[in-house]
Amino acid sequence: PIEARDAARRPVIVVPESLEINGARARRDLERALPPEARTLDGLDDAALCVLWLSRERGLLLLAQEDENTPSGDRFWGPYVRSLPVETSCAWALDDSTFERTLREQVLANADVTTTYEEVAPAFRAETARARRHVEAVSRGLSGDYGTFLPGVTPESVAWALGVVSSRAMGGDAANARLVPLLDLVNHDAARAPFTSFDVVEYNAVERMRRNDDPDDEVDEAARRVDGDDWTLWSWDSGHRHPVPLGPGDELCANYL
């Protein structure tokens, strides 16, 4: 268990920047794999680069499973890719009957909704149809441009990667999208604090979690909000007022909004 006092003094999870999958990392890895005659990656934003990178990583793992002579099964990112869901849960990926059932359940479960299912459903259907067209266009485009040069990159693998990036990426928008392994397993809860970041090189993390060099003092808001390279999850409430103790089996949550 993590008592409130301990939750106030140190983060629950720290993910170093070196494990962040961002546009720069994706571009670097992809450029190493692409031959000179391949289409340039210029023009792709960070989200698209991460989608193409993830599509290739998953494709290589699947090829290795099908052919034991393919030396791709021990890739560094293999454990992370295997931890991701096999099927995306995005609305555009659901079949029509599952989509309608899920939509009805969500509308009826929301006590604040004053309109009926029949009133709101058309707008959700239209938005989902628009998203499907976008996914199909991106999947065909990326696989068509790079699939010849990147084994495992297919319309199906790109669509899967797009679902992962669109539902799990940090950064706020497509121009700054990045995947943070481990933290992207944390679910959303508006009552909890958002992710923060700071540099954990050497003793910086410890010093930034103390005030006045007092090892028994609680971390203050400035220390918890300090910006840096590495990602952290603190067990605090959404207002950063009170640490939240954790017991065995408790779910780790963060405010994604």
Shape: globular
- Poorly predicted regions: 200-213
Major sheet details: 3 strands, antiparallel
Element pattern in H and E: HEEHHHHHHEEEHHEE
Helical stretch count?
9
Calculate the terminal CA-CA distance, rounded to whole Å: 27 Å
Strand content: 5-15%
Protein described:
The protein is built from nine helices and seven strands. The chain has helices spanning 4-9, 23-33, 46-66, 78-83, 96-109, 117-146, 155-168, 204-208, 221-225, and strands at residues 13-15, 21-22, 178-179, 187-188, 196-198, 230-233, 253-254. It has a three-stranded antiparallel beta sheet with strand order 1-6-5, with no helix packed on it. Strands 2-3 form a two-stranded antiparallel ribbon. A two-stranded parallel sheet has the order 4-7. Helix 2 (23-33) crosses helix 3 and helix 5 (96-109) crosses helix 6. The longest helix is centred in the middle third of the chain and has 30 residues, at 117-146.
Features of this protein?
mainly alpha; two-stranded antiparallel ribbon; 7% strand; 257 residues; 9 helices; three-stranded antiparallel beta sheet
Produce the secondary structure layout.
Elements: H1 4-9, E1 13-15, E2 21-22, H2 23-33, H3 46-66, H4 78-83, H5 96-109, H6 117-146, H7 155-168, E3 178-179, E4 187-188, E5 196-198, H8 204-208, H9 221-225, E6 230-233, E7 253-254
Parallel strand pairs: 4-7
Antiparallel strand pairs: 1-6, 2-3, 5-6
